[in-house]
Design brief:
Number of strands: 13
CATH architecture of the largest domain: 3-Layer(aba) Sandwich
CATH topology of the largest domain: Rossmann fold
Radius of gyration: 21 Å
Strand content: 15-25%
Order of helices and strands: EHEHEHEHEHEHEHHEHHEHEHEHEHEHHH
Number of helices: 17
């Protein structure tokens, strides 16, 4: 089986695709895997590190604002179709997997015209614009939230399967003791993970620094908590310089290739609510304070966070007017209330779909078998 994966842009598309591709490779289910994406540093470095064959196309997101983008968009779209046509002609995949980023559109559309079986994966509670366009043309659709499947036509519903968002098996396999050893942390302290997403989040970093400085004023908190803070590249030095003088122990990093260790050691996550983060939190049952990125396309992060809030798996705090003092109160409430934390963990696990990667790969294999 020859599998073509198309994903790019942000970690929300890239990490689930990596989970699928890694599973296929590790279980020797594909003779060849080819990845089509863009040129952003995150995906180029990740794919180089993971060792996957990679081809770039000049895809561009659908313009939503500036008229100048509308002038360039048709030319980029035509070029992306031409590049994708040549790649498909040369690679001849058995199955094409589209992860919902704009890179998926030309590849999956051409797969339809070539008669190649295809799968569209939706990670969020609502369909991405690319996936909305592709729904009539794909062979199968995999969704992550029950809410996503509502209001679909009967024809689309018949080829839609609720699976969940794929995550890497190492997320589930790593123990707290391994995380403690990896980061040289105190096994008896309450560990808080600040996570800004694959590209970091400056406003979240500012809030994180402010709230840690506030917590540092309380002797009880200085003795009881420790922090893992993932900043993104731009804010690394500033966050390090802000937290180093404090007595609360803080491990600061721009990015963690092996995020599983940070999850394993943490009692509480304070983070955005992108699809991959939600999938990882719920698979592990890690309680969270979710601060959705307010400018996410279609407010999808807010919709994701609402699902967890409604189930009692997380607190949802809108970034607008959110202060360090208000965030501090939310953190203290959870640090002091272990029963509530356990309840949130249980509710989170009820939402989790830890077998999503295996089930997604089974769906890919079924599509391949239909070709024979």
């Amino acid at each position: 089986m020859r599998v073509l994966v198309t994903a790019g842009g942000t970690g929300g598309h890239i990490y689930p695709a990596l989970a699928i591709a890694s599973y296929l490779r590790e279980h020797h289910l594909a003779s060849r895997i080819l990845w089509i994406g863009g040129g952003r540093k995150l995906e180029v470095e990740l794919l180089r590190w993971q060792g996957f064959d990679f081809k770039q196309i000049k895809a561009s997101p659908f313009p939503r604002t500036f008229w100048q983008e509308w002038i360039r968009f048709p030319f980029k779209l035509i070029l992306s179709f031409f590049q994708s046509f040549l790649i498909l002609l040369q690679f001849r995949p058995t199955v094409v997997i589209g992860m919902g980023s704009f890179h998926s559109y030309p590849v999956v559309m051409l797969a339809f015209f070539f008669g190649i079986r295809s799968l569209a994966c939706e990670q969020n509670a609502s369909f991405s614009l690319t996936n909305k366009f592709l729904l009539p043309y794909v062979s199968k659709i995999a969704t992550s939230f029950p809410q996503t499947n509502k209001d679909l036509s009967k024809r689309i519903k018949n080829k839609t399967q609720l699976i969940g968002n794929p995550i890497h098996f190492k997320i589930l396999a790593t123990t707290r003791q391994e995380g403690i050893k990896k980061f040289n942390l105190d096994k008896d302290k309450f560990t808080i993970l600040f996570l800004g997403g694959s590209q970091g989040a400056h406003s979240l970093n500012k809030l994180g620094v402010e709230v840690i400085q506030l917590l540092n004023r309380q002797k009880k908190m200085r003795d009881e908590i420790q922090v893992i803070f993932i900043t993104g590249e731009n804010d690394l030095k500033w966050v390090e310089n802000s937290l180093t003088p404090l007595k609360i122990k803080s491990l600061v990093s721009s990015y963690l290739q092996e995020i599983q260790y940070a999850y394993a050691v943490s009692h509480l996550a304070i983070c955005r609510s992108g699809a991959t983060t939600i999938a990882e939190l719920t698979a592990l049952g890690l309680p969270a304070i979710l601060i959705p990125y307010p400018h996410a396309t279609g407010r999808h992060q807010y919709e994701n966070a609402k699902v967890l809030q409604a189930s009692g798996a997380a607190l949802l705090l809108a970034e607008d007017n959110l202060t360090g003092d208000r965030l501090k109160k939310s953190i203290l409430g959870l640090v002091k209330d272990k029963k509530l934390l356990k309840k949130m963990s249980r509710r989170s696990k009820e939402l989790g779909r830890p077998q999503a990667t295996r089930e997604m790969v089974e769906l890919v294999c079924n599509l391949a078998n239909q070709v024979r």
